[in-house]
Specification:
This protein is of the alpha+beta class and 245 residues long. 24% of the residues lie in helices and 19% in strands. It starts with 5 loop residues before the first helix and ends with a strand.
């Protein structure tokens, strides 16, 4: 529905979130929207608009989406190819009217907690400087001995399809590797832990650490729940994702 008629869909969504309570600050903004037919429960029929107005709406939507994606790409700071943000998620007061950031947070990982609850490093590029594409390459993520994500609660590395940001159907029904799985994972001789990120099953003896990936672009999110101070102040950094042979 959102793709076919985004403004009609928005009018429907508005019926579910009236501007009352904390949302009352949106009343003036919604008044502006209403001038062009964006109003809770009202029909929105772009086919009835003149061609020039339809073209302007299309241009506006593409421009806005482009700005939101640009904001996603600059969330936080880059650490070894990961985007690590300590201010990307929060409540209405934290966003303080920054709707581009608010939309970027929803696009990158809807329902995200603020930093003291969880950090969400998002993989932007692998060690070759390219966005991860597991249809073309295999990758590894190695945590040196004693350098697992510093979480008071738990951590995870989750794989999504880079096109849809949905989980990937795979033959072993594994969608993430996380700290509760540590007893079943295999460590290297030096005590490090290597996660194998690829679409095909790895060689014999390596399946325990396999994170199945899509046949195409990958969207990989690390989560550190109740992060320790080392994660919050940047002393600990997520290691680079390496292209493997």
């Amino acid at each position: 529905m959102a793709d076919a008629n985004p403004f009609a869909y928005l009018n429907f969504v508005f019926t579910l979130c009236p501007p009352v309570g904390p949302s009352a600050v949106e009343v003036p903004m919604r008044g502006r929207f209403a001038k062009i037919g964006i109003e809770a429960g009202k029909p929105f029929k772009p086919e009835d608009l003149p061609a020039e107005q339809k073209a302007a709406l299309d241009t506006g939507m593409k421009s806005a989406l482009g700005k939101i994606k640009e904001t996603v790409a600059t969330l936080g700071k880059e650490e070894n190819g990961w985007r690590v943000a300590t201010n990307g998620f929060g409540d209405r007061q934290a966003y303080n009217g920054n709707y581009a950031l608010r939309a970027a947070a929803a696009l990158a990982g809807i329902y995200g907690n603020d930093a003291v609850e969880a950090l969400y490093p998002i993989l932007a590029t692998a060690s070759d400087g390219e966005r991860p594409d597991t249809g073309m390459k295999n990758y590894t993520l190695t945590f040196p001995a004693g350098q697992l994500p510093p979480a008071n609660a738990f951590w995870s590395v989750t794989m999504y399809d880079g096109k849809t940001q949905l989980l990937i159907k795979n033959p072993i029904d594994r969608y993430l590797i996380n700290s509760p799985m540590l007893p079943s994972l295999k460590t290297n001789a030096d005590g490090s832990l290597t996660i194998r990120i690829q679409k095909d099953a790895p060689g014999e003896g390596q399946a325990a650490n396999w994170l199945p990936a899509p046949n195409g672009p990958a969207y990989i999110v690390m989560r550190v729940y109740w992060p320790k101070e080392a994660a919050l102040n940047g002393t600990w950094k997520p290691p680079a994702v390496e292209v493997s042979q």
